[in-house]
Amino acid sequence: MQTTIETRIEKKSDNGLSDMVKNIANTINTGIYETESEEGCNAFGYLEDALDFRWIVSNELEFLGARILVAFGGPNIWIDTFRKEVEGFWWGSYAKAEIHSDPMGLNDALEDLYISRLDEAKRRK
Questions:
Q1: 78 DSSP 8-state letter
Q2: How are strands ordered across the β-sheet holding 9-11?
Q3: What is residue 83's predicted lDDT score, i.e. its pLDDT?
Q4: Which residues is 53 bridged to in the sheet?
């Protein structure tokens, strides 16, 4: 049984983009997505198909959040854990939906990945 939490969405125009953005936000807000993993739904599994990560850090390199590219080339869709939103762009269309819950621990998993990659970069020096 899949639970859907209604997400407020701001849209300036469409092309189906708003539905895609809303579905991604609902997945994050509920923590439920279709998976073949025996471990069930978890943040690391959700991030396996991410196309790019952009880290948002303080001047002291403290993790604040991340932008994750989850669709590219029509449409482009980013999950932003710092601003707590999903944004989509497709030609002249734009849609945005709020992230108000993180039951799968997406932001915590991103922080773990950031710390791991930062440690690896330090070791390379």
A1: E
A2: 9-11, 93-98, 85-90, 76-80, 63-71, 52-57
A3: 98
A4: 68
Q: In sequence order, which residues have a C-beta less than 8 Å from that of residue 101 and are 6 or more positions away?
A: 5, 28, 29, 30, 31
- In a domain, residue 3? The reply is no
Please give the model's pTM, rounded to 2 decimal places.
0.83
- 29-61 confidence digits (pLDDT tens): 998 887 666 666 789 989 998 999 999 999 999
pLDDT bucket at 124, cuts 50 / 70 / 90:
confident
The whole domain housing 42 covers 9-124
Tell me the C-alpha to C-alpha distance, in Å, between residue 61 and each of 82, 105, 109.
Answer: 15, 21, 17
- Residue 65 near residue 110, CB atoms below 8 Å: yes
Domain count across the chain: 1
